[in-house]
Prior knowledge:
Layout: H1 4-16, E1 23-28, H2 39-46, E2 51-57, E3 60-65, E4 70-74, E5 79-85, E6 95-101, E7 105-111, E8 117-121, H3 124-130, H4 142-151, H5 156-161, H6 171-180, H7 194-213, E9 244-248, E10 251-255
The chain binds a DNA duplex through helix 6.
Amino acid sequence: MPELPDVEVYRQYIDATALKQKVKRVQVNAPKVLQDISAQSLGRRLAGERFKRTSRRGKHLFVELTDGSHLLLHFGMTGNVHYYAGDGEQRPKFAAVVFTFENDCVFSYINKRKLGTVSIIDDPEEFAAENRLGPDALSLSEQEFLERLEKGRGGIKAFLMNQRLMAGIGNEYSDEILFQARLHPAVGLRSLDPAARKRLFGALKSVLHTAIECRVDPEKFPRSFITPRRREGAPCPRGNGTLVKQTVAGRSSYVCPQCQQA
DNA sequence: AGTACCACCTGACGGC
DNA sequence: TGCCGTCAGGTGGTAC
């Protein structure tokens, strides 16, 4: 799940729960997710620190600590977070890293497939530069977006998912954006006319904003979205036919052949 | 520069 | 019910 809207909702969730709490101890159940840090030193770095404030860039979530360093969370394909009272509720399944606070509440970084990342970094900006992460997709102006479009050469779906051009869009939301913009994912950037370019930018913003407003709950998504019915043979929300699945940019993609011409 | 493919991990699901 | 193959919303490396 975790693309930009999901990670934004996780961020808001942390703000509403674990923020300002002081860490008592850290338990690492899946050392695999730790990057450039041992379980022991993660615990040492965090003990006594508070979760001061959160930020996000694309699919990366940062929690600033009292000492100015940042806890970095990336969720891969199966990451999630959960906060609960330590005594009553039982530890969620697949809890990879568990943070216990002074108030005995628990913040859990969950990751079933362990493809995510937990680390401590000095500075998110520096991290983004080192990893060549593009600007957050929601902070991108139309002009910046169009400039990037003009420089690109490949297919439109690969463009949207390229984290170096803009950060945050993954497989699922790229399909939704392209459906809303009525563009086929395999269309080459250079064949897009100005109206299509503008439409794409509008769809990008509205899809991401809408998903966040709905707290990424597919049941709350507008009827016009394909995400809640993301499977082959599902009806096109515009009543134009049925969705088909095809591989584009190496990923499973769902398109309405009537609305989205190749 | 862009794409295609593999690897990383492990669970969920459908078919037999 | 049980086993097996297939697929999964991310990312990074490698090889064209």
